[in-house]
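pls read this protein:
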Amino acid sequence: MRPLLFRNTSAGSLPWRRLLPVCWLLLALAGCAPTKLLPPGRNLLNEIELKGVDKADAERMQTLYQQKPNSRFPIPKLLIYQLGTNFYDSAKVRRKLNADLERYNRLIAQARPDSAEVAKLTLKRERRNRRYQQKLDKGNAIMRIGEPPVLYDTALTRQTVTQLGIFLKSKGFFRSSVYATDTVEDRRVTVTYHVHEGPPFHYAQLDYTIPDTAVERRVLASRPQSLLHVGDQYDEEVIGQERTRIETLLKNAGYYDFRDQYITLEADTSFVPTTVRLRTFIADPAPGQSHRLYTIERVSFIADAGIVRFGVARDTVVRDSIKFLAYEHKIRPRILDDKLEVRPGDHYSLANTLLTQRQLGTLDMFRFNTVNYRRLPRQSNTLADSVQGQLAAIVNASPAKKYQETTEFGGTYVSGLVGPFANVRLRVRNPFGGAEVLEFGVRTGFEGQYNIANTDNNDGSTPRAVLTTQIGGNVNLVIPQFIIPFRPQRYLVRYNPRTRINASYTFVSRPQYTRTNAEATYDYIWQRSEFHQYVFTPADLSVVNTPFNSIDKAFLANLQALSNQGFPLIQSFTRQLVPSINFTSLYNSNDFNETRDARYLRVYTEVGGLTRKLYQAVFPNLNVFNFARFSADYRRYIKLNPKSYFVYRFNVGVARALTPTTYYPPGSDVQRTGLIIPYDKFVFAGGSSSVRAWAPRRLGLGSAQTLDADGRQNLALEQPGELLLEGNLEYRFPLYSFINGAVFTDYGNAWLLHKDSRENADFQLNRFYKEFAVGSGFGLRFDFTFLILRLDVATKVYDPTHPGNRWVIRNFGFGARQTAFNLGIGYPF
């Protein structure tokens, strides 16, 4: 979704003396003793220490604590709870609850016999009763943001000692011991867990006992993939993973009935001191019986599962020995057949079953799909039948709605102006009978922006805010196979190949210029794995038009000045044809709500205008520029606990003209040569997903200063660059209910790769590290599961382009030149 931007443009700053009352309040609260909240005879668990851990995983052991002190980071939650108790009276809440119950009971009695009114009043009574009960159980809203004092419990300490001992022995420390001591000072308890690890035990021998010779051959053949190796430290967690590996191995080999309870691993520590002899037993299903190997005898595909038409039988189409059943075959069986990895005559395979379900799911044609198996009766009682079985596979797919409409409304708040926007998308499934997805999209929106052409003051120091307009539409067709001259091999189906054809048109009206962009792309998309996707675009063609008479005079003067300084940006606002080829590799192991310990890497390369002479011969009135772009975006999501995360990000982008272009500057008959690329292909820094303390595209270049007539920074001009380096650090944590918080620091900048007359706008190794802009702030995330609304407040800490002292944090305030408010949908990264 498109990020939204909320930016406060009020002038002035907040002096530090205004923060003094807040500071004094926090200091006063910090001085209050939380022990006042403790009941008589109970103590506060203040701190836990773990001593003696050398080789074991101390972090894993800390997760086993049955009782933990109150959280102190990023906010002292016990202090917040204590603040809430100053405004809480449980007796008063109880009186209100009783009075409310009496009032609603009286109203219910008066409403009888009107059952509808009684039901409505009863629902209101229950809802208000739950609200009061929550206050009685957990306190008021402030107390629920904080945490009640953790009362020290010796029984939980003993349980922790037991859990730590079990953990150490599960990791091979068979001679370990654990005990706990506690010290009390001023009713605050410090618990210390003392650990004696002892020597870790390692595998000296790995043996197998498998009576079933067929199973034994498969297991022994897979020993190179085993997770257990001689010399490794004993680890029950890895042993459990090895059991799962063997079970999956045999299920993929046709053993449909095999379960992990047949696998037993026994450890013998009496072999040699500090060593383990591990034996793997795989038992038979019953004495004298071998594990049965199953073959798929037939496959049926029901394409409209869940639909019932009484008295009407489904039509059956047979393709490649597979029966396709449906009341009406809306999707061609050939398309569905390509997605099936469960085939007649093959051995049963769990991997092929899951792959079939995943490939059918990626079609986006079905609400759900399942693959079920039914054992077929044996035809005779021969010996072969005792070790071999047959299955009938039934694929059930429930069709999704043919039409799906999505409407999104939102708004921005930039430069003191509210700008609404709306997106409308219509998805049509299977329009041509080949499981295609056809999408139509329309977007219209307005956004506030500074207008440098018109100012409130004669000296031009205060830009006036105006609304910019953006209107666009697109048509997108996704075909579930590669459209190429030859028929691809069947193995490509495993990579979920798709062809995407897209056409779009965008109209943008800004104070500086009016611009249109008509673009068409042809993409090949495939997936290497569940998390890794590739996109190859052999044809990306766009026509960009900026009517010369639509360019604002002040903006045109600035472009001409840059051209005279050696930066021919003005040529990027001519009528252009932009042909390019690009490739994207995207790896993302996270989910939509970013709740996993995950990694993200997006690498993008693009080359444009390789055949520009051919295009210029056909379209002599269009400029064609030869350029290359590269970007790499890496993100790491580290899960600290179930609801807290540390996220960091590195992003680099490069845009460069490959060959010089000869041109005539507007209003001049003197020919010049320069490195020119289309304006939209430059890299930009700043914005709600970049360095958030700066407005979108306004950060940079390097430490070059763009000043107004009065010597102040010009905040209106975008700063197109050729090299982008930026990074982000963010800690995300829960606050209250569905509200989460974040503290972050962003850094980065954009530079030119060539030198022009602007001082320090180019990238140089001896100073680029001094030119990183730094911004910090905090944010709120409202997690509604289906939608995440984000508000980030970021202030400038270090501004390399600021005239004077670059540590602008000294000028802290909530004015537009110092602090930005970013309102967006979804996480920033």
In short: The radius of gyration is 34 Å. Confidence is low (pLDDT under 50) at residues 1-31, 451-463.
